[in-house]
């Protein structure tokens, strides 16, 4: 059983006081040595002011970056500077679902990688319907379901693993912007035959973006997916790439491409509405994927 753990939280424009206190209280009740490292990646002044109160809190190491260094690099820096050989990564906009959250990970052991999963609450906040619907339908899943394809749904938003595995496999600065660093990480785990264990230990994803922001992030993610495909041949197994291959095979892609000028605004109108359709979102992403692949 793990006896020492570094809990690592990269922060960007998010108050993490409640999350840190939840983790600190449970960790303090367990027979383990722990630290909670909170690194702020160039947040706005208000967020920095709020989170700076963590300085001096027993068991917490708070550090602020003078400028934003990016999603991958801040995680890599946290891992490099962690004191202990076992890491727990959490995003800054989550909260554990279960009160024995840490205990569940400790029981999973210290070999390989453990993924707890993500959950979404019962109804979407106004204006964030697309992100909630996508997360509820495509990301939320039981451990049994996730274990069927263990190298999918490996999210660094809720991840428990040895420090040496993370440093060896996680992309430090190969991707910029949002999206698919976890795809590259999971591929490398598979290449090294490192086992991935999915357990039922989810976190609530609370920091949902408005539809406009989520669409922009989705565009950045597809750009990164194309980069991974071109550099490593990754992504062929994803539903999006498979759908694109089918469209190309049946020569539908050209038809969609010729009509993209009016399709994009039509799809976007639905996606930013209160009742977004995920099939329309898939088509929207397919058009973007085709656009980037043709560049």
From TrEMBL:
<feature type="domain" description="Glycosyltransferase 2-like">
    <location>
        <begin position="6"/>
        <end position="138"/>
    </location>
</feature>
<dbReference type="InterPro" id="IPR029044">
    <property type="entry name" value="Nucleotide-diphossugar_trans"/>
</dbReference>
<protein>
    <submittedName>
        <fullName>Glycosyltransferase family 2 protein</fullName>
    </submittedName>
</protein>
<dbReference type="Pfam" id="PF00535">
    <property type="entry name" value="Glycos_transf_2"/>
</dbReference>
<dbReference type="InterPro" id="IPR001173">
    <property type="entry name" value="Glyco_trans_2-like"/>
</dbReference>
<dbReference type="GO" id="GO:0016740">
    <property type="term" value="F:transferase activity"/>
</dbReference>
<keyword id="KW-0808">Transferase</keyword>
